[in-house]
Amino acid sequence: MKMIAALFVVIWSTGFLIAKAIVPVADPNLFLMVRCCLAAAMFLAIALVTRVRWPRLREAPKHVLAGVLMQGGYLGGTYWAVAHGLAPSVMALFGALQPVLTAVLAIVVLREIPTPRTWVGLLLGLGGVSLVMIPGLLARGTGGFSVQVVVVAVLAVLSLTSGTVLQKTSIASADIRASSALQNAGAAATAGALTWMLGETRWIPSLALWASLAWASLILSGVGTFLLVWMVRRGRAANVSSLLLLAPPLAAIETYLLFGDRLTVIQIAGFAIALVGVFLCNPARNADR
């Protein structure tokens, strides 16, 4: 389980880099629609080859809705916000609220009551993420973005939160391969509708575009989202979501390695604090049950 969690965090952290990488070569929702179509086709092929049992017809809309929320709403909002001037580091800070929001929503919907240790871990993780991201914001500023962009970013995080909790409802009994095909189809439909409404057409073939698309569809959607759903089904929503707190600090390290962005002592300390927070959340998983 620890190896799976580590793999998930590394994969998920690259999503912030992809959101920034596609800005010069493709409109966000158009890119997301193609990404999710490819992922849906991949899971459909896997489900057909392995002859898995598909969800009952009356349950199918729930799987589609989970994809609409968890990928269509979250990724669409994230990509759009970054494309319209929101720095990836700021979006990462918004995303860091998701585990805390998940814990609150899980209390209401799933009756999952986090232990005090889990709450302390979530707050430590949130504080650690802030230490990692804030120095970069102070150095470069948040850039010029409107209130509308901030609203979209917040709605994107709320969408991911709702989709994560929905994974713990009755759809959790369905085969995850068939469910992933339906969820990616729902996300593709959402992105397609937004592409049409916003009139997005920019698609500039290039190495950056094809590499980003391959990574996003096969690794981020194909492996990363699959692992997140798999872990949420087997653990408490708040505890699993706490792993997302490690993605922004790790993304900062990745930008340092790839683009030479400096890491300060405060940022390194923030990453360590976030790691402690996630550790407090996840060893408590058995006790939380």
Flag low-confidence runs. 284-289
Shape: globular
Strand content: under 5%
Order of helices and strands: HHHHHHHHHHHHH
Total count of domains? 1
Q: Report the radius of gyration as a whole number of Å.
A: 18 Å
Number of strands: 0
Q: Helix- and strand-based class? A: mainly alpha
The overall pLDDT average reads 82
Measured as a percent range, the helix fraction is over 70%
Number of helical stretches of at least 4 residues: 13
Largest sheet: none
- Spatial gap, N to C terminus: 16 Å
List keywords for this structure.
disordered C terminus, mainly alpha
Please give a structural write-up.
The chain has 289 residues and is an all-alpha fold. The protein has one domain (2-288). Helices cover 77% and strands 0% of the residues. It contains 13 helices and no strands. The protein has helices at residues 2-21, 28-50, 60-83, 88-95, 98-109, 116-140, 147-166, 176-198, 207-234, 237-241, 247-259, 265-281, 285-288. It is globular and about 50 Å long.
